[in-house]
Design a protein that fits this description.
The structure is a single chain. The chain is mainly α. The chain folds into 2 domains: 105 residues, DNA polymerase, domain 1; 183 residues, Orthogonal Bundle (hpI Integrase, Chain A), CATH 1.10.443. 54% of the residues lie in helices and 4% in strands. It contains 14 helices and 2 strands. A two-stranded antiparallel ribbon has the order 1-2. Strand 1 and strand 2 form a beta hairpin. It is elongated.
């Protein structure tokens, strides 16, 4: 590749991400957005002609300072550490691209991520809360049957909300005895994995599908009045699913402001608390990196600690 300024490599990098890394269009769009922040920083610093071989640690340090002190226009607050890291990871990926293409530049390892002192909080529902939530929709109404199916499916499978939205009816082949079902889904980075439906989830889905009299291919559809006459897609959106989950959290009066991802966390936490190996939990969730799954060990370790305190305290011993 010709020797040109860093900011001129975006198209080459995105082509590489698509063809050689197999990244999804959405991921490519995110990388483009994150890298444009760096490119704009270079332009504003009169470094628009900076070439890969001239990039040094001082440039990166000043960019990190810029990110740390940057004020988000929407929240009017500094960028979160996690958000800063998205920008830094994108820059690191660009440097990895330079390595792959034998373009002399700063080593990717020189891009250090911002340290977040506040440990990532994992919100999940305990068993009693889950029972209350899953039984809250009204089974006498088709929307209630749909919503019950959504909640049961999220907890049974650990699906991401985008994966749930993409499900089609023809993927769900339910046998009369509601036998355990497994299907393949395409997740982040076009990674294919197997997910499993429990008998409870299949029972809820069967009741819902038995009431359907439409031919829409989507598993979960919108029942907004008149939508079937508009010709619009009736497939529920991720936003719709989020609204549905929040609705039932409010109805049940649960203390956790849950999202569809909370049910995914609950699914993973339940597996961990049952003693399922971390590598298997990684496979269930479709995590590319085991470090992403590792966060659930903190949750279950705390649970074990609380149980130990309750059962093995000096107070109980002295009874």
């Amino acid at each position: 590749m010709e020797n040109k300024p860093i900011i001129k490599y975006l198209k080459d990098f995105l082509d590489y991400s698509e063809i050689e890394k197999g990244l999804s269009l959405k991921t490519q769009e995110n990388y483009s957005r994150f890298l444009n922040k760096f490119f704009n920083y270079l332009k504003n610093s009169n470094l628009q002609d900076l070439k890969p071989q001239d990039l040094n640690e001082d440039h990166v340090w000043k960019y990190r300072l810029f990110l740390s002190r940057h004020i988000n226009k929407v929240s009017n607050r500094p960028l979160k550490k996690s958000t800063q890291n998205y920008y830094l990871i994108a820059l690191r990926s660009l440097l990895e691209f330079f390595v792959e293409k034998n373009i002399n530049s700063l080593p990717p390892s020189k891009i250090k991520l911002a340290k977040d002192r506040s440990e990532r909080e994992i919100k999940f529902l305990n068993l009693d809360q889950l029972k209350k939530l899953l039984s809250s929709p009204d089974d006498n109404d088709i929307k209630g049957l749909r919503d019950r199916s959504i909640l049961e499916t999220l907890f049974s499978t650990g699906l991401r909300v985008s994966e749930l939205v993409a499900l089609n009816r023809d993927q769900i082949k339910i046998k009369n005895n509601l036998e355990f079902l497994e299907i393949s889904v395409v997740g982040k980075g076009q990674k294919v994995r197997t997910v499993y439906f429990s008998e409870r989830a299949l029972s809820a889905i069967k009741k819902y599908l038995d009431k359907r009299n439409d031919i829409d291919p989507a598993l979960f559809i919108n029942y907004k009045p008149g939508i079937e006459k508009t010709g619009e897609s009736r497939r529920l959106t991720t936003k719709s699913i989020e609204t549905i989950v929040k609705k039932y959290i409010k109805i049940t009066g649960l203390p956790v402001m849950a999202t569809p991802h909370t049910l995914r966390h609950s699914f993973a936490t339940d597996l961990m608390s049952q003693g399922v190996d971390l590598r298997l939990v990684q496979e269930f969730l479709g995590h590319k990196n085991i470090a992403t799954t590792q966060v659930y060990t903190h949750v279950t370790s705390k649970q074990l600690g609380d149980i130990h305190k309750k059962i093995h305290s000096r107070k109980n011993f002295d009874k």
